[in-house]
């Protein structure tokens, strides 16, 4: 009876992408994210690995008497992935430079539960971005907060846009997350 349950659980995991946690070397979270996204793009695995996230939170840091808004990693040393778990995806992620292991007993990755995903605020909230190339936007947060620029590229998979901002009198392309911008 328990074998039948395990088989039905496995089939459910095969038909539904889930959130998994990967442990990385400290300070390599963004590099691991970039490497996995590049592999996804190069191997055409967009249909198997859907999202790669390094959760960040906005903090106010006071240095030399000045307040500064900074973004800190919520889970240092970890990267979250929404993906179908199979031999190919496991191999690709596990063998990415900077990845030490999946979170789970032994070498068996354990997906996050729906409650854990909701508690982290990373659930299936799909942001509809009503921005097109050429639109004017304002940066809401980060080092370029309150800067105004024009959208040059949109990457739905990475959930980023390339915006041309005027920095020191020159138009400079800057990559920003969807949640950092607002249409004017």
From TrEMBL:
Q: Where in the numbering of this chain does the KOW domain appear?
A: 130-157
List the keywords (alphabetical).
Transcription, Transcription antitermination, Transcription regulation, Transcription termination
Q: Name one GO biological process term.
A: DNA-templated transcription termination
Record has Transcription regulation as a keyword: yes
User: Can you list the GO cellular component terms from the UniProt entry?
Assistant: cytosol
Keyword field contains Transcription regulation: yes
Boundaries of every NusG-like N-terminal domain copy: 16-124
**Membership in a protein family:** Belongs to the NusG family.
What function does this protein fulfil? Participates in transcription elongation, termination and antitermination.
Q: Which HAMAP family match?
A: NusG (MF_00948)
- Name of the featured protein: Transcription termination/antitermination protein NusG
- What does UniProt list as this organism's lineage? Bacteria, Bacillati, Bacillota, Clostridia, Lachnospirales
